[in-house]
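Bumping my old thread because nobody answered last time. Still need a sequence for this structure:
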């Protein structure tokens, strides 16, 4: 199946550290299977987030991009499993965005 191939190729690129190519592949997947592509893109964007550096513009951008993908999933009236995944993703982003208080 084409979607499985794109996911496999995208994940391989992520593992190799080729995030730009993975993003290109996942955007191609988003055209064929919108919510699968969005979930893969959101995961990729979160992966590029540097923990504890949420105040940097670059880091905030990755989190904003991930949030946008999750919200687009929710706006699409998705199946229950995709809705739950997107909601969990948004909750995780809310936690990541909270300022670090210290030990």
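Sorry it took so long. Here it is:
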């Amino acid at each position: 199946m084409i979607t499985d191939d794109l996911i496999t190729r995208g994940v391989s690129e992520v593992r190799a550290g080729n995030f730009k190519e993975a993003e290109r592949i996942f955007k191609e997947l988003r055209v064929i299977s919108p919510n699968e592509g969005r979930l893969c893109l959101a995961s990729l964007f979160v992966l590029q987030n540097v923990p504890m550096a949420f105040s940097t513009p670059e880091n905030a951008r990755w989190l904003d991009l991930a949030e946008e993908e999750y919200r687009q999933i929710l706006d699409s009236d998705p199946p229950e499993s995709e809705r739950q995944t997107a909601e969990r993703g948004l909750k995780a982003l809310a936690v990541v965005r909270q300022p670090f208080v210290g030990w």
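The domain at 2-96 is CATH 1.25.40 (Serine Threonine Protein Phosphatase 5, Tetratricopeptide repeat). Let me know if any region looks off to you.
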